[in-house]
Design brief:
The protein has 479 residues and is α/β, with parallel strands linked by helices. Helices cover 56% and strands 8% of the residues. The strands form 3 sheets. A 7-stranded mixed β-sheet has the order 3-2-1-4-5-6-7, with helices on both faces. Strand 2, helix 2 and strand 3 form a beta-alpha-beta unit. The N and C termini lie far apart (70 Å). It binds NADPH dihydro-nicotinamide-adenine-dinucleotide phosphate. The site of NADPH dihydro-nicotinamide-adenine-dinucleotide phosphate has 22 residues, from helix 1, helix 4 and helix 6.
Length: 479
């Protein structure tokens, strides 16, 4: 019983997390992988880590002090279930199994229930930051019981990224809460990336600047309120020249965006919860549209303006795009936090939204200064119904208003697709509208399906007798 923590699954994520754990004082790390070769490789490559290798689950369990704590980092899905079963065969009540893979939160809820019935604790944990994060400090989103957090908390705090002296980990809530929050993180990441891509496209077509010149624009933006990891790496990507052709790399890369599915999960879940995450949805669909070359080929001849904006004042246009990006980004994050709030209500998780914003400030892909403003907003008003109505964001949106509208209008007039910019603006205007045409939709629904409607001036539910004399009846009378 020499190790205080173990890792199962020694592919890139698991071995980096194991090395991270081993590098912190007080930790001795047991390691196990289904295929022995990976364990041997890790031991040979990193003797400094002092790993305790195991070549069977029995050995693995025997090498851990109690309560045993094991982090699973294997392929999400059936492999995770298989490893859980194997661990349950050798673990005892009070021990802790952590799944650090990218599980769908519904699976985590199911697994937590099954594992809990054996007396073992199960923690579904979102891990963000990719390989480098796992090694140097990820953003960690653990769910699970309060009991497991007592043992796990200090270990996770020791390996997480640090932002402004605070570790990027917090106990998110029970069962699937951690994986739910990780899912929405990825959805927001999709939206943020799409918005940046649209900003690049608009500047390129609008001003004729080269990718390298636009890299300078992004680098400059990174020194201001847009300061973030994604803006920073965007500048790096745009500056890159292809060695083989001498062309900007971004012009050599096939323009079809891939996806591993977590953005789609965020949107599907939002639909289930009735939360409008239109920015994230547009980002997911923009990737899908890009990845249908056959549809794009047959559509290439469709009429429209040449996708070039006629910009008179280049600097003013770039500043407008920056403001439009900032405003749209506020919308995307507001929608994402709205989804977390709705998920917490639906699944009875007590999630501290301000704490979520804080743990995303380091280690993860959407890390940004901006997240401080979100945690400030929830600190001032924990029950804030719509994040973008917090004073700081209202100020920002007030400043960005005109620019945002003119950029979206210019994009539409010039035939430059800007789905995330324009849907964010439409969402914003929908929220602030005094009256929405939803009343007409209720009328239509009542007409064809007798779905009834409520009135602005009286309590109750009503139906118009559309196919008779078109008088109105109280809905109770019609059933
Ligand atoms: P992979 O997702 O490629 O999974 C490979 C690992 O899973 C190997 O250790 C493999 O063992 C093990 N495995 C597969 N099937 C089984 C099985 N039936 N029983 C036991 N072990 C099995 O590894 P990654 O390191 O890329 O990712 C690990 C997890 O972390 C995944 O869930 C991933 O989604 C998640 N994640 C990944 C991030 C990333 O940036 N890559 C970021 C955050 C989370 P063997 O060697 O025997 O084949």
């Amino acid at each position: 019983n020499t190790a205080n923590i173990g890792v199962v699954g020694l592919a890139v994520m698991g071995s980096n997390l194991a090395r991270n754990l081993a590098s912190r004082t007080g930790n001795t790390v047991a390691v196990y992988n289904r295929t022995r070769a990976k364990t041997d490789e890790l031991l040979a490559a990193h003797p400094e880590a002092g790993f305790v290798p195991a070549f069977s689950y029995a050995e693995f369990a025997a090498s851990l002090s109690t309560p045993r704590t094991a982090i699973i980092m294997v392929k999400a899905g059936a492999p995770t279930d298989a490893v859980i079963d194997d661990l349950l065969a050798v673990f005892e009540p009070g021990d802790i199994i952590v799944d650090g893979g990218n599980a769908l939160f519904h699976d985590t809820i199911r697994r937590e229930q099954a594992v809990r019935s054996t007396g073992v604790n199960f923690v579904g944990m979102g891990v963000s930051g990719g390989e480098e994060g796992a090694l140097l400090g990820p953003s960690l989103m653990p769910g699970g019981s309060d009991e497991s957090w007592v043992t796990l908390g200090p270990i996770l705090q020791s390996i997480a990224a640090v932002a402004e002296d605070e570790p990027c980990v917090t106990h998110i809530g029970h069962d699937g809460a951690g994986h739910f929050v990780k899912m929405v993180h990825n959805g927001i990441e999709y939206a943020d990336m799409q918005l940046i891509a649209e900003a690049y496209d608009l500047i390129r077509r609008g001003t004729g600047k080269t990718p390298a010149e636009i890299a300078d624009v992004f680098a400059q933006w990174n020194a201001g309120e847009l300061d973030s990891y994604l803006i920073e790496i965007t500048a790096e990507v745009l500056r890159q020249t292809d060695a083989a052709t001498g062309a900007p790399l971004v012009d050599v890369i096939v323009d079809q965006a891939g996806a591993k599915g977590t953005g789609g999960w965020t949107v599907q879940t939002a639909i289930d919860l009735g939360v409008p995450v239109s920015g994230i949805a547009e980002a997911v669909f923009a990737r899908s549209l890009s990845s249908h070359p056959e549809q794009r080929a047959v559509s290439a001849g469709l009429p429209g303006p040449a996708p070039k904006a006629a910009v008179d004042d280049v600097d003013a246009f770039i500043e407008d795009v920056r403001l439009a990006l900032f405003a749209s980004k506020i919308v995307a994050y507001s929608q994402g936090f709205d989804e977390i709030r709705a998920g917490a209500a639906a699944y009875d998780w007590n999630i501290d939204l301000g704490a979520v914003a804080k743990i995303w400030r380091g280690g993860c892909i959407i890390r940004a200064q901006f997240l401080n403003r979100i945690s400030d907003a929830y600190a001032a008003e924990p029950d804030l119904a719509v994040l973008l109505t917090a004073p700081f964001f209202v100020d920002a949106l007030t400043r960005a208003q005109d620019a945002w509208r003119s950029v979206v209008a210019a994009a539409a007039a010039s035939g430059i697709p800007s789905p995330a910019f324009s849907s964010s603006l439409a969402y914003y205007d929908g929220l602030r509208a005094d009256r929405l045409p939803a009343s007409l939709i209720q009328g239509q629904r009542d007409f064809f399906g007798a779905h009834t409607y409520r009135r602005t001036d009286r309590e109750g539910t009503f139906h118009t007798l559309w196919s008779a004399d078109r008088s109105e009846v109280s809905a109770q009378d019609t059933h």
